[in-house]
């Protein structure tokens, strides 16, 4: 005679099946999480190894360049606030701007009043001093940025610039009426860490030649060259 299963037994059997399904589902979820975690760890390790390799290569290049140039560079410190360095603050940090025989000291107010190249250079040097490498490419023309000779660092620390001088050398106008201006620019870097310029040691200057091109009245840097024997 077939034994009749009670309602309670049927409910207990159903509950057991549900619990079994839950245990299986939980086990699958745990297994999936472990698998994904292992993949993430592997990817992270590979990325870290890649970054370390790239950094090592960059450091090797930097050491080789320093050895070849004979220039000593201070250790870069991207967390340093240079405005807390009392020795740097005691140096001449003014910006001298000479334009058509007139020389002024560039401040936020004087640069804003004069506009044009004066304002561009004031903002340019504030960008460099503050290590704002994200904003730095915005000072250049698209033509320059596409040039194989363009020197635009991807990243640089705050720069302890001093002894800054800017002098108009030439002013030109082509047949289409477009104006370009040539400036001689010099400045020194106290405790140069080599992240922005690698051609000068600390507290030495080498005159650069900036060509400014005007785009709808706004000056942008179209080229930067180096003057020999300067």
Describe what you observe in this structure.
By secondary structure, the chain is α+β, with helices and mostly antiparallel strands. It folds into two domains: about 1-70; about 80-225. The chain has five helices and six strands. It has helices at about 5-70, 85-90, 110-115, 115-130, 140-145; strands at about 95-100, 100-105, 160-175, 180-190, 210-215, 220-225. It has a six-stranded mixed sheet. A hairpin with a 2-residue loop joins β1 and β2 (about 100-105). α3 (about 110-115) runs antiparallel to α4. The radius of gyration is 31 Å and the shape is elongated. Residues about 55-60 have low confidence and may be disordered.
Number of distinct helices? 5
Task: Evaluate the radius of gyration.
Answer: 31 Å
Mean pLDDT: 83
Distance between the termini: 113 Å
Share in β-strands? 15-25%
Portion in helices: 40-55%
Strand order of the largest sheet: 2-1-3-4-5-6
Taken together, the total number of domains comes to 2
Count of beta strands:
6
String of helices and strands:
HHEEHHHEEEE
Helix and strand content put the structural class at: alpha+beta
Rough outline = elongated
User: Mind describing the biggest β-sheet?
Assistant: 6 strands, mixed
- Unreliable stretches (pLDDT < 50, length at least 5) are 54-60
